[in-house]
Amino acid sequence: MAEEMESMDVWKEKVQQDINDLKQGQRQLKNDIDNLKLNDIKQDEKIISLQTTLTSIQDDTKWIRRMITKAIVSAIITGLIGGAIALFFTKF
What we know:
Helices cover 98% and strands 0% of the residues. The N and C termini lie far apart (134 Å).
């Protein structure tokens, strides 16, 4: 009878230890989930910041392309007008 009580006590201790281990594991998982949520929020903020930066860069490149196009068109028009004036003065 004493042996049965002893083995029952050992079994209870093991079960209690298993329960405590499971609870500790659950707490750790909750902490990990909370950390992942925080990291996800931080990454979302970084992505939004990068999108804003990319939009700004895209706007800047549009402006640069427009300026280059204007410069090329101005150079062509200047060349045509200069050539026309040169031809006009050579004939008259």
